[in-house]
Amino acid sequence: MEYKEGKLENVQLNIIEPPRFFEKLLVDKPGEDAPRISERICGVCPVAHHLAAVKAIEDAWNVKPPEPAVLLRKLLYAGQFIQSHALHLSVFALPDYFLRLQEKNLIGLYKRDPKLVKVAIALQEYGANLKEAIGGRAIHPVAAIPGGMSKPLTVATKRRLLKNYEEIFKNTIKLADIYFEIFSKRETFVKGFPPTKTFYLAITRNGNFETYDGPVKVVNSNGEVEFEFQPEEYLSYIAEKTVKHSYVKYPFLKKFGYPNGLYRVGPLARFNVAETISTPKAREYWLKLQETFGKPIHHPLIYNLARVVELIHAVELSKELLLNDKITSGRIRREATPKEGSGVGIVEAPRGTLIHHYVTDKDGIITRANLIVATCQNVPTIEYGIRVMAEELKPAILRGKTKEAQWKFEVLVRAYDPCISCATHLVEIRVK
Predict the structure, then answer these.
(1) Residue 426 pLDDT more than 50?
(2) Over the stretch 329-342, which tens digit does the pLDDT of each residue have?
(3) pTM of the complete model
(4) CA 133/CA 180 separation, integer angstroms
(5) Do 417 and 34 contact (CB within 8 A), yes or no?
(6) How many CA atoms lie within 13 A of 336 on its CB side?
(7) Residues 155/328, Cβ–Cβ less than 8 Å
(8) When comparing pLDDT for 221 and 102, which is higher?
(9) 243: Cβ–Cβ under 8 A, 6 or more apart, which residues?
(10) What stretches of 42-151 show up as alpha helix (H) in DSSP?
């Protein structure tokens, strides 16, 4: 942020990590390798890339996995959501609310409440155990292959994973109650972060919250449906532009252009797009969130409350899937024959909608790849939110009171849980 002669001159959200060229790396590789290559994009949410990639290849080769395989993938994905959301809610977000300008990190939080930190770690461990049991590895799984899964789930493993479920569920609700209490007592604090009215984009199925599969729906800032489209139609609705100050492309809705077509993805978008959520306890907290803040919600800090609801849902869903007899019965793979085709796979990653698009030749070799990742879609709105807040905080900043302002900017960015979470502890303010 740059202020010059009392005016806000410039705001830039600089994503300066060099390009990694995954889209180019995937070209000339066999389609069946895409799920194992693309997941290296991220060590925090590799399952999202793993599943989006395998779905895209299956779409290109016209093969559908059997039901037990889909159930296994959903269980693997529940583990991903549990681990990722528990990590963000404990390591990145809670220190902001409890410690503010003090030692705002996990060590500081542990000094304040060691039991709470242990609860959060136990939740992350449960998610990691699910990922390892289903995916073969807790990080960068190998189980999803075109046509299904490579590894079945045994009854013994089911029992082991269910063994401590009640304790995990109790800890999840404990963490959820802490968050809802924080936000109920600090309504003024929440509203101190300006709301950003945008479009919201997420997949949904018959109005229900969904993470694995479904059409994409877009609602406007009034909560009205603008349009709904199938994954393979995404290029007709979403465009991207480059900016000089960042390696991240800025996506927007084609119909409205840039910047009018800015939209958000992730937990808040999924809450605003979907009408309800399937599991009972998550639905209870979903309604509680709606009763407290209305719908649609535009305040960026509410991303964390929506994230809490999703954490409850993922934990409940893991039990539902583990108790489903179909998950250990029947075939888990159909033969997938490499061929010429174009396929799109869309999932809801913990941080938002993730799009993988591959084109293969007659031998199943990838000739073109296009990826639109979750964080990229939120960056333009994060930057806009920083600009609005920079104007509001200008008097204090120009008086030299920058410490509180820096903290607020960091909290705003971290609320979105971008894949640059670890790097958002640095805010530079220049006054000329």
Answers:
(1) no
(2) 889 999 999 999 99
(3) 0.94
(4) 32
(5) no
(6) 30
(7) yes
(8) 221
(9) 250
(10) 46-61, 67-87, 94-99, 106-112, 114-135
